[in-house]
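[stage:ingest] chain + small molecule (adenosine-5'-diphosphate)
[stage:ingest] validated
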Amino acid sequence: MKKTSSFLYDIIFVGGMLLFFFVIGLLIWGELTLPDERNYTDFYLKDYSEGWEIVKADGSRIPAVIPGQFSMDGSGKLILEKKIGNIERTNLYVTFNSARQDIVAYIDDKKVYSFTTKDTRLFGESSPGTLMFVPVNESDSGKHLRIIMEGQNNYSGVVDGMQIGTQMGIVKHFLAKEKWTLGMTAFILYLGFIAFVIGASIKLAYGKTSPLFFSGWCASVAGLWALAESDVRQFIAPNFSLLSYMTYLSLIMLPFAMAFYFDAVQDGRYRPLYMIAAVLDWFCAFIAIILQFTNHTDLSNVLFFAYIGFILTMVIFTVTLVCDFIKQNVKLFWPELVGNIGVLIAGLVQFLTYKSRPITVDRTAILIGIIFLLLMSYLNALINIRNLERDMFAAVQAQESSSAFLTRMSHEMRTPINAILGMNKMILRESKEDNILDYARDVNGAGNYLLGIVNEVLDLAKVNAGQIEIDNEEYVLMDMVREAYAMVRPRATASRLAFEVDMSDVLPSILKGDKERIIQVVTNLLTNAVKYTPEGRIKLSVQGKIHEGKLLLIISVSDTGIGIEEQNIPVLFNSYRRVSDFKNKRIEGTGLGLTITKQLVDLMGGEISVESVYGKGTTFTVMIPQEICSIEPCGTFSMGPNGDRRVADRHEVFDIIGKILIVDDVAINLRVFTMLLSNTDITVDTAISGVEALEKIKRIKYDMIFIDHLMPGMDGIELKTLIAAIPDNPNRTTPLIMQTANAVVGAKEEYERLGFTDYIEKPIKEEELKKLIRKYIK
Ligand code: ADP
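[stage:predict] done
[stage:export] tokens:
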């Protein structure tokens, strides 16, 4: 079905395309070959170059061969005269290009026409070159037509043709002459504008400067030049003086845009050279425009500067291109290079076909070259975007797989470390020999340190993979502070540091948020404070302010320690960075703690900041918004009636009696589990497989059953289903707890969906386990 529909889709698509090309083809073929149907007006036009004479200042006459270039007489005028032959129709016009001069025409002694833009142009010394329309009628037959051209400029004296016709005939003739160049110019302006837009979008989306933006710029400038050069500019722009000046202004702008274009093509490798060229170009353009606006010179006279800028930019490009060839960088931008070679060839063809001093430049070759360059520039951008996308995709994949790898490895490592620590705890509990106890304490210290690092790596991998879920549950603020305090207090005491707590007593007593993550953040900061403070004190301050209906919890941890050098502060929260400072060389650490801390704070919608005076001390401040559940004041901070011990021992007071079953396929896990509850009144029964577990469950009533999720043979979920199917099951109401090594986002939903009562994260932590037992065995 899928195949058929995609085949059908292809057929319909091809049908649609064929129709489109047929219609366009029909239009082009028909307009070029079918007869002219326009009968409503007169397109009459005839050559009128024969029979002209030049009238010199002394009155003498010489024949003028048109087209031609003639010298001006002493008073700066060129006078052409011709006897008008037999005119058979009314409303005819003699037309020619004004060669940037002012024009006056007489028939016999009657002035019939004059042209100057002296009063209408914005600036410049001469009127622009444009088509003249000198009216002649039947009654003028046999009279003399005298045309006076006045004004000095670089085209003075050039007459490239004389024609006679109706106004419509003249317009049609010139439009037809210019149709290809006009069409190409419009296409270039269109492509250039789109290139501009795409180049800007690439910058916004990928932060990369694309040569397409600058080729779009160059092409727009070139398009403007081509438009301004056009013979028919007076039919396009009402104030064609201004448009005509664009020929010069665009050429003055071009080297500037080109410098930026080449710089982008070569990825900024030779930027200083191009910037020098660009500054010079800009300076020339600036001077030229100032001189022009103040009518001190004509723009055509400052083209020289544009040529210098153009040559300079091209020389830099050529020289640096050789460097790029040697360094094999050319493959990075080959389409642009091919495009440029195309323009160069087009420019050469243009140059070779240049006839001596024509009034308008034939622009066909160069326009084709520019279109080619633009298309190659589009191709280059396409290749670059594809490469960027591929790199980004690869980077995301690498990041994902490295996060997945780290997560798996740290999970795998935590299980044996916990087993080692668990077994070691038994040695500490049961051994009576002092030297064995000493060894066991060392194993305990090193093991805990190792577990800390593995946990940090796991946390970071989870944060990077977006797998950390922030809980939003009610908690007692005072408990949170006490727990954090109690966890760091022994280290502070061991380092002989005073540990102050300054907690506002009016803060709301019950908040909603992720208590455990806040404790993790605060203990990270407090542990650092202890680590990096050789003597003096550390201080935990807990304050708050109401912000947008929530409590902005402001927790600062300050110390009188070694401090952080100012230049190191910006990199503190970067992954894997340890500040290199001889003072902390001997202090253990991975440089991960602050990275995780910052990421957790970010996840909780908070902010972290640091202030430090090197050699004096450091203050880290975190601000985390928390929902308020009870506005009752939390009261003065204290560690409760039993001081530190109450919190520290909170988990030790465990007087629950019950019987539980642990199902796990790894024997050491069963032993650790058993050991964790060895000095309690909980009787622990174990099963190494689902089959063994089923046997026991059928016979014995348990208060709780802990089932490993992943087991060979029958896994935890199958086991659960089979338990539910046991007839007369003594454990029908027993809470089933899933042991999961994958407590990432969604674990909670997952165990609920599968019908387990609760879950516990592996490796099992003593406190977590006892908390859970307390929850289900009353
Ligand atoms: P670790 O402590 O494991 O090296 P952290 O990410 O916790 O990694 O800290 C990064 C660096 O920040 C530390 O190496 C240390 O140089 C500096 N640092 C952190 N906290 C303090 C502090 N309270 N006083 C001085 N330096 C600190």
